[in-house]
Design brief:
Length: 253
């Protein structure tokens, strides 16, 4: 990750105070609320609702500008304009609730349609929180960039027809207009390399498990899968017949 400002926000954050339109909210209004940042994606849990989306930072602005684009949850399709300040393990965010003008100061008042949140870094996200955040990063629609199977490179004309769609822990891969596979999957982003397991639900080898490793960098993800039933690969390569699949995907804009 090249954005140093974004790197500093990685991890799990708990909301410790909340002010909305000039009024301080009691602890019951935000108890248990948190934000998990993984890459440029965020997962926010607040008052029983889960929000997911992407974030964009402009560190050249003073205060630093932050855009939150909500892709899942009650605010799906909306964008919140914000500013933030990070002081050690304390993160302050002033953001729009429905307004279209970015705040200029860390303050709210009646009728401002602004909220001011103060967050503290958690001791570290739990393994389950990390998994949920990672699955959220893998969601969406992806275009195939390259594919190698059993040591053979897939021709470019076929690569152009490849697409991957993921929602929750279910994924579908289409190639040449045909469904190549459907699978339920689990991930473990705490290992090195990160691991992924498919349970195939459509296509060839239905019911079998396929073990893989992956690396996710921004909008590009690389998977290396063993053949169904074979041991998990340890490196991102295929060497010959029955050795598995190496495929690179790019998130569609």
């Amino acid at each position: 990750m090249k954005n140093k400002d974004l790197e500093r926000l990685q991890g799990s954050w708990e909301i410790v105070s909340l002010e909305v339109e000039g009024a301080s909210m009691g602890e019951n209004a935000f108890r248990g609320s948190r934000i998990v940042v993984s890459g440029n994606r965020f997962t926010s849990v607040s008052m029983g609702a889960t929000y997911q989306g992407t974030m964009k930072i402009d560190p050249t602005k003073k205060p630093i500008a932050l855009d939150l684009l909500f892709e899942e949850g009650p605010e799906k399709g909306n964008r919140s304009l914000a500013i933030y300040a990070l002081d050690g393990d304390t993160w302050r965010i002033c953001l729009t609730l429905s307004g279209k003008t970015r705040p200029t100061a860390f303050a709210t008042k009646a009728g401002s349609r602004l909220a001011l949140e103060t967050l503290k870094r958690s001791s570290g996200p739990s393994r389950q929180e990390s998994i949920r955040a990672e699955i959220a990063r893998l969601e969406g629609e992806w275009s195939m960039v390259s594919c190698e199977r059993d040591g053979q490179t897939l021709p470019r004309e076929f690569v152009k027809t490849g697409s991957r769609t993921a929602k929750g822990n279910e994924t579908t891969v289409i190639l040449g207009g045909q469904t190549l596979l459907k699978a339920a999957f689990s991930v473990d982003p705490t290992t090195a390399p990160k691991t992924i397991d498919y349970i195939l639900t459509a296509g060839a080898n239905v019911g079998e498990t396929q073990a893989g490793i992956y690396v996710l960098e921004g909008d590009t993800v690389t998977f290396c899968f063993a053949a169904p039933g074979d041991p998990r690969p340890t490196e991102f390569t295929t060497r010959g017949r029955g050795s598995g699949t190496l495929v690179v995907w790019k998130r569609k804009k």
